[in-house]
Amino acid sequence: MSESDMPDWEKRFRAPRVSLPDWAEDAPDRSLFVSNATGTYELYAWDRASGEQRQATNRPNGTTDGLLSPDGAWIWWFDDKDGDEFGVWRRQPFGGGADEEATPGLEPSYPSGLALGRDGRTAVVGRSTDDEGTTIYLVRAGEEPLEIYRHAESAGVGDFSHDGSLIAIEHTEHGDAMHSALRVVRPDGSTVAALDDTRGGTEELGLEVLGFAPVDGDPRLLIGHQRRGRWEPLIWDVVSGTQTDLTLDLPGDVSAEWYPDGAALLIAHSHKARSDLFRYDLATRELTRIPTPPGSVSGATARPDGTVEYLWSSAAEPPVVRSTTGEVVLDPPGMKCPPSVPVSDAWVEGPGGVIHALIQKPAGAVGPLPTVFDLHGGPTWHDSDSFAAGPAAWVDHGYAVVRINYRGSTGYGRAWTDALKHRVGLIELEDVAAVRDWAVESGLADPERLVLTGGSWGGYLTLLGLGTQPASWAVGIAVVPVADYVTAYHDEMESLKAMDRTLLGGTPEEVPDRFAASSPLTYVDDVKAPVYISAGLNDPRCPIRQIDNYVSRLAARSAPHEVYRYDAGHGSLVVDERIKQLRLEMEFAERHLTPTATAPTD
Questions:
Q1: Are 461 and 435 in contact (CB under 8 A)?
Q2: Does the predicted TM-score (pTM) go above 0.85?
């Protein structure tokens, strides 16, 4: 099919995309980014001085997990098998050459963070396995890896200080995988300082590592905290113990990173599904807005010359890497991504407070419309006013799309995020039901043509919603879902087991009633709507066996359903595969709804 004959929805998937470039601290003209230019998402090296761009990785199922060494000499990338997320780190010279194993002596594992030293020969490598829990190693070229941390609960590498004398670790030794504590150690593993805001289990507050000051001998660590009910930054001197609370007068979640000179912070502020940027001068405590268009900034970095580069988009406008100079930083050649329609906001009274939903519908369309309720994954994530090819494709075909930041979502305060504990899945679906009722009563949505869909946690909520709200939905489309919570727990990667123990209060053997109440399998015989499920054969997050268990129960009573299994992990990095999957989903919806929307054609 030629570009001129290609529908807009397909162009949005095929148009070349790039991520925000990562740049080498001591060689800032050397950058690393991700692009789908070849039809598969891979890592690319970019020499800004010469303008040369080179594809660094080339694997059938794609590669997105990579890091550039501070000296710009090496590209590190994670090598797993067909998306199973279990593998080893490899590296290759920035200018090209053979890949080599980057951490000889360490067996394959799930990754738990990576930080590279400025000396070009040292790395801090986090790894996790089902048998060992989390281990963290100091790896030096030519030496045996040195274990500096081990614990049965989940943990990860936070950062490596500028001079290589300090290592920050995020850990959940207290057993709450949703709220990390911090430990700072020396390269021999001995502890320098620790910080724990979990408050003895009475009030769980999380901490996160944002980065050491980019100055030799500077022990300041920028961290995020939740002490006032939302994410905010503070500076912790890990040697003296002094904590400098920034107390920024901004209403939403706030994150930060250092400017390269260590004299200021780049502030990222997220509020009501939009985001913006600021510069915070540490000496004057002055907060200065950095102009960005309305929409969402999904990543930003301050360059050595003081400029800021950021990846921006809105629901209507495709993503672009911009600079505060006014220039577009990266503009890949090839077809251009067609725009979509803007979102509008709906604020709906729900059982736990006001729920924020984002609404898209075809330009000029008058309801009631066939409507797709597209539930985000996570659950600790949120939908925003940012570009998404999937919802845009549904809109192209005559559907309204509703995206809901249900309880459990980030961006609306700690209490909203933490509300789902112990009534997992059910409490989120109370919010979905409230927004569904609003959409029907407002005249937006046709109650006979409602599609419930989502991926990962959104796929889980889809199956759970079809069983617990069987009269509410005409079609269900679940992408890489949890379907049988007990089997999923036993088969999934260890870090997700820890998250499930936190959410549900224990293992399936310890709290069987909670697992049963939150498992779609419990309600499978109540499902009335036709069900479509897509699943990765190598998925370590939502493994295939538990999906097969659910499908077997549907088949046993001849319930209408289709299953699509593909040879990858928790989603595909291959553009053709993504297009195929969306086409199959839309065709399924068309077959089972009153024919008012046109499905994509070949």
A1: no
A2: yes
